[in-house]
Design a protein that fits this description.
It comes from Granulicella rosea. Its EC number is 6.1.1.7. Belongs to the class-II aminoacyl-tRNA synthetase family. The chain is of the alpha+beta class. The protein folds into six domains: 251 residues, BirA Bifunctional Protein, domain 2, CATH 3.30.930.10; 108 residues, no CATH class; 132 residues, no CATH class; 109 residues, Elongation Factor Tu (Ef-tu), domain 3 (Beta Barrel), CATH 2.40.30; 160 residues, Threonyl-trna Synthetase, Chain A, domain 2 (Threonyl-tRNA Synthetase, Chain A, domain 2), CATH 3.30.980; 116 residues, Diaminopimelate Epimerase, Chain A, domain 1. Helix content is 41%, strand content 23%. The chain is built from 30 helices and 37 strands. The strands form nine sheets. Strands 1, 2, 5, 6, 7, 8, 9, 10 and 11 form a nine-stranded mixed beta sheet that branches. β20 and β21 form a beta hairpin. The longest helix has 46 residues. The two termini are 66 Å apart. About 2% of the residues have low confidence.
Amino acid sequence: MDYRSGSQIREDFLRFFEGKLHRRVHSSSLVPQNDPTLLFTNAGMNQFKDVFLGAEKRDYTRATTSQKCVRAGGKHNDLENVGFTRRHHTFFEMLGNFSFGDYFKKDAIAYAWELLTSPEWFGIDPAKLYVTIFEGTPQVPRDDEAEQFWIATGVPKDRIFDMPAKDNFWQMGDTGPCGPCSEIFYDLGLAASETGEDKPFPQDDQRYVEIWNLVFMQFDRASDGALTPLPKQSVDTGMGLERISAVLQGVISNYQTDLFTPLIAKAAMLTAGVLEETFDPKVLKILSPIEMAISDDPAAASLRIIADHARASTFLISDGVQPSNEGRGYVLRKILRRAIRHGRSLTLRGHFMHEMVFAVRDEMKAAYPELVDTAERVAKVVLAEEQQFARVLEVGSEKLDGLIREVRSDGWMSLLAPYLEKLGEINKQRLEIAAQLQKPSYGTKFDFGMLSSIVGEVFSADETSAIAQQLSVAKFVVSGKKAFQLYETYGLPLDFIADAAHDANMAFDFEGFEAAKEEEQQRARASWKGGSQKSASPVYRELAKTEFEGYSTLRVDGAKVIALVKDGLGVSELKAGEEGEVVLDATSFYADSGGQVGDTGWLLAADHQTTVAEVRGCTKPVQGVFAHKVVAKQAIALGDTLDTLVDGERRRAIMRNHTGTHLLHAALREVLGKHVKQAGSLNDPARLRFDFSHFAGVAPEELAEVEDIVNRQVLANTAVQTFVDVPIDEAVNDLGAMALFGEKYGDRVRVVKIGDFSTELCGGIHTGATGEIGVLKLVGESSVASGVRRVEAISGTAALAEFRRGFAVAQIAGDAESLKSKLTANEEEIKKLRRELDQVKMKAASASTADAAGSAVEVKGVKVLAQRVDALDKGQMRSLVDSLRTQLGSGVVVLGAAAEGKVSLIVGVTKDLTGRVQAGKIVGVLAGFVGGRGGGRPDLAEAGGSDVSGLDAAIGKAGAVVGDLLG
């Protein structure tokens, strides 16, 4: 085998299958589009799921890709193994070839063997290869067919092995396409064996590595488990670029390939604090990148983790994911923080991870040129996360110190229980204070002089000495459950927490920690179904595509009803007054997509005049099928012929806003920089909303400049050109079209071009020229998330109405006295309305908590009432806490509210319980869930936070927190 770089291997694979008449298809985004069952794109077939299910058709039946994949959450979670094994990664590339009802086993097997063994291609020695096939079950026979095809290619029969269904039978989900698969393994040799024993295939999974999986989809599994042959058999294959690179480069670890060694070297330089030109492993007395790729040294593992996680983070952020506390953003945050922690473990104290972004860009830009444009933005996101994590570690360390003090104090009080009655209440409190004052690193040791000063008046010197001895040898335990809360909430590493416990002469509850971690992972798995795939709804799956004619007309006559749906089920008729969905063979209605809302309007009878149904919206439940959401005015039956009529005035308002969005996007990039990329949009009749990547608030003068640029384009009345059915390569490379985040593009696309100012891939409906927008007025700018801003704007008649309101205000301002009088009257009216609103809010909140005793839960004998009251301000929350404590008589009240991106928490404890549990401690723990801190008196305490997404968790955890504090 000749040495090939990873980039060359990727290109050779794609070029080989192009020679076999496969369409080279771009990698899809790491954020799966139109598939809520997936956290991240984790296989090459994800972007073809609808094609395999029959819900989408393309103009090719063979495809080949190199697909970006991430496995770090949900079902496919490799995160904890990354860096410590040879082949686990969070980010990897999956090479694949696909047949959609075209060729099947014979050709798939022949292609695979030719590519792997032909001297013109990869040139692998066939004696190094092994093949597996499906061994069969009572329901599905052994795959003799695949075996015969392998033998026909030249594979000896003694190198073909039967494997069970768990290894060699693939299915998309509980139902849908499935079938046997055939895997190809490569023998890395005895040097790769972990045991050093010369074991035969397949007994050593480190020596014999799977490099390619060929999936043969030939059955359709029904809900009862029955299998029926598919009318069109298909092929889905996957070969990891990192694994095949290791094979072709003659190494035993993926991290030894040129896909990783430059990144490992960069990580070593950054953590060693040296410049690139001074990097010399011998001089620095560190391992070379190749040695670091396989060394068992913990520092080498940390460098591998940084290299891997830098790739995943760079691509995830480039594809629009932002660090956050939920969903995809939460997984990204865990990946980033894991890499940062390992960097800090290498004595690094500065920020370094953002610099790894540029190393990833330099290594991957040939295959993914978009990284050149996004790297600056990605690096800023990573740097912001590094800075925030540094603050989190600082706060988390304080919380850990507090936990250790709490364990020591509780332990001392427990050991001293037999003496407390004799000591009396005052001395007991003095002991508790002394325990809290001890530094965490002092462990359980207690200063004899301090102890004597507290108990010496009560006990003899011998008794005091005995008590001190008992305290000094006690071994207290740090709760694994509470430690996991610090791990999860503040990102404190497990070894960091365990070391702190050891330094304090305490044991650490590892079992409790793992149990809490498993419980959290189960919750995560319940939230994200991982790779669980579901077939398209039977109601829509087999329907022919709707012919969409709405680009050129508001009306289509003579459309035929091909499906009627009510409550999710197909019906033969919708009666007058019923709501449902109507699917037609043709329509003028645009369906929700690309940020543009669906049209509304009417369905007319065959006489072209009578309204049969009011259309309140239009969607695409599966690709190409338009479902009209209707309220029937007359009975509608399958086979009826109807006319579709779109509300033209509403459509034109949407068109103005959608074209305005394109102008706005281009103007923002011109004023703020080319890092600006769309992160979401909404175009409806009233206004447009545009979310984009940017790190700071947009200054008023910048907004004014953006508005000026847009309106100059409007005044120019530039024609809006549309190009249809353009190959995506031509659209991006030749026309310079910008692909928008969140959109799912096929191999051929629609391009909207506005002069030389804006060119984007877009399926929406636009004005014929920019002048039809009339004017575009910006009306708002705000933050949506870290690194994402939002602007809102209006156009056309809505903008005219805004200008009229401004003119009316200006007229009033001309008469100062009139203005003063009007403002005073308005102010009084506002005060009155606010008082009335406050009363309504309090009544509503009081009504919702009227049965406080009944709503409270009992935790270790204490009533706990926790509720969310978003409508109330802090003063109202305090009043409600007092009211609820009175209703409970004895108990704990926790109230939380969110408004304008801020969280407020208030905890009240009735006086009789403050000796057992304090409000300040409760609110301190709960504040961690919302990214804040707080405190207060034992009976009343408050906290604030900035993470609204964590409020429900904080409310839900209130009972558990009180229980933990009660002991």
